[in-house]
Amino acid sequence: MDHCLENIDLIGNRLLGQTPSLRGEVEDEAAFIAAMDIICAPVASKVIADLGVPPFKHLLDVGGASGTWTIAWLRAYPEAAATLFDLPHVIPMAEERVTAAGVKERVRLVAGDFGTDPLPTGADLAWVSAIVHQNSREQNRRLFGAVANSLTGGGRILIRDVLMDDSRTMPVAGALFAINMLVATEAGGTFTFNELREDLEGAGFVDAVVLRHDDGMNSAVIAVKARPA
Predict the structure, then answer these.
(1) d(CA 151, CA 157)
(2) SS3 assignment, position 104
(3) 180 three-state secondary structure
(4) Is the N or the C terminus of the chain less surrounded, counting Cβ atoms within 10 Å?
(5) Per-residue burial over 36-51, b = 16 or more CB atoms within 10 Å of its CB, e = otherwise
(6) 165: left (phi > 0), else alpha (psi -120 to 50), else beta?
């Protein structure tokens, strides 16, 4: 089972649930983000290598947290730059980590809420990592639309998340995770490729394909922003 799937969201549900710990919500979220980094950093470089994405100029890391994936992408693509977009109180954590990783000069840090705010523009590749399972399909379509509006012409969206088969019973970890999302979120769940493709097309993307199959969170789907007719 994917360790990011097995551990991170269970940790997150506990730390970011309805009742904060004695440390308070801010410290709880800092601990959650640190846990994400510890668990995902060891697998990030392999996942990115498996994807085989062609070179890009500028990455937009939507909800990029402390920069785990931004750092991995920039190490894999040394000619690229990145914008990391996340909530205002998360940005200092990201700044600390990208500085320690030696990529700070290649990263623009932008504060905002991807659920309500316009996304930063200018990227030709958007990384939407472990987000869609938190949302309903309607919410995802709005998010994909915001991504499309932010990308340059012909830009691509790359989604990393659980990917279910058409029976919605496999992979088993994903089926169990769907129950977790049913309990822990207002409208979240796990989705099939056909569902993601439909929602991407509804938001202005075309040519969706699966780049990576995984039993957990590290499946990946890519699509291209449609050019104006």
Answers:
(1) 9
(2) helix
(3) helix
(4) C
(5) bbebbbebbeebbeeb
(6) beta
Distance of CA 138 to the CA centre of its chain: 17
- Residue pair 109/142 in contact by the 8 Å Cβ criterion: no
d(CA 132, CA 128): 8
Query: Around Cβ 16, how many Cβ atoms within 10 Å?
Result: 15
Q: What is the model's pTM?
A: 0.86
Q: Which residues contact 51 (CB under 8 A, 6 or more apart)?
A: 158, 211, 212, 220, 222
Tokens describing residue 132? 């869609």
Domain map of the chain by residue range? 45-225
Written out in words, the top-level CATH class of the domain with range 45-225 is alpha beta
Mean pLDDT by 10 residues, the chain (229 residues): 40 45 58 61 91 97 94 98 95 94 98 96 97 95 98 97 93 84 83 98 98 95 91
pLDDT of residue 31: 58
For residue 84, the model assigns a pLDDT of: 98
- Is the distance from CB of 148 to CB of 119 less than 8 angstroms? no
